[in-house]
Amino acid sequence: MTPTLTLDAIQAYRTETYRLRQPIRSRAEAVAFVAARGYVYFWPIKEAPLPSLWAAVAGERPVADAHDDPGHVTWGWKDGSLGKRVWYYAKVLRKRATLISLDVVPYFYALSENYGEPDKDYLLQYDAGRLTFEAKTIYETLLAEGPLDTVSLRKLAHMTSKASDSPFNRALEALQADFKILPVGIAEAGAWKYAFIYECVHRHYPDLPERARPIRQADARRKLAELYLRSVGAARERDFVALFGWPKRDADAALQALAQAGVARLGVAVAEQPGEWAALAELG
Q: What is the spatial distance between Cα 50 and Cα 28, in angstroms, rounded to a whole number?
């Protein structure tokens, strides 16, 4: 008989893991929340079920436009924590703002295209067509110059024209998603007097490559998939593929490993929902 869950049961589970019942009230609680979940989004992403710092503070409601909304205290916590190494912050999952526990970052890094020589690895990606010219230029600029705010980075990378806006921003996102650069501070620069300061990951976290080195990629996927399930309770295979950007075969392998370990059940039906789901074993 196919095991069956209900959306109500899944939502009840998420109410606890998303901190919707006991809102976060301080930065220390926010850091503990990220550590407990392993990784969360900064803002909620409608098409990607995952805890977010905003919802854990403000509840399950849209992000407010009003700057004085109490939920926007998260913005100050995020900016005030840049460079403090209390968590890892960058555009990672689906190239959206992501907060990652420092204990979990090595598992992400183990899946990136960084193989131990940060000043050379990127050239292999570029030669293979997996890194754009703009991303290569930005990364080389940071390698040569050290931390730079966005305005200065654009100038030194010779990408100040209006036509460079989209390529520059896409390159920043790609470099963050591959754990090559990350924001480490805020500068009063540009028209808005607010610009991220970017630095190379291997310089800001010099021990990260060594911490990631012994982690096998299959083990990294299993770890991240388990953390995802422990946050959301149940998800479809396509949710894993969409969130992490893994090939289907790798997502399958990670889920099979969790099932063999007794952590997850596969082939679960969710009432009135299409497809087969993977669910935590304890959800029944």
A: 21
In this structure, the chain runs to a length of: 284
How do residues 54-83 score in pLDDT, each as one tens digit? Answer: 999 999 888 878 777 877 899 999 999 999
Which domains does the chain show, CATH number per domain? Answer: 19-104 (no CATH), 118-212 (1.10.10.10), 217-283 (1.10.10.10)
Share of the chain above pLDDT 70, in %: 99
Rounded to two decimals, what is the model's pTM?
0.95
Contact 148, 203 (CB under 8 A): no
Bridge partners of residue 268, in order along the sequence: 277
pLDDT of residue 232: 97
Residues 126-171: tens digit of each pLDDT: 999 999 999 999 999 999 999 999 999 999 999 999 999 999 999 9
Residue type, 283: L
- What is the torsional sign of CA 71, 76, 82, 86? negative
Long-range contacts of 256-264 (CB under 8 A, 24+ apart): 257/218, 257/222, 258/222, 258/225, 258/226, 258/229, 263/226, 263/229, 264/226, 264/229
Q: How many CA atoms lie within 13 A of 148 on its CB side?
A: 19
Q: How far apart are CA 87 and CA 79, in angstroms?
A: 12
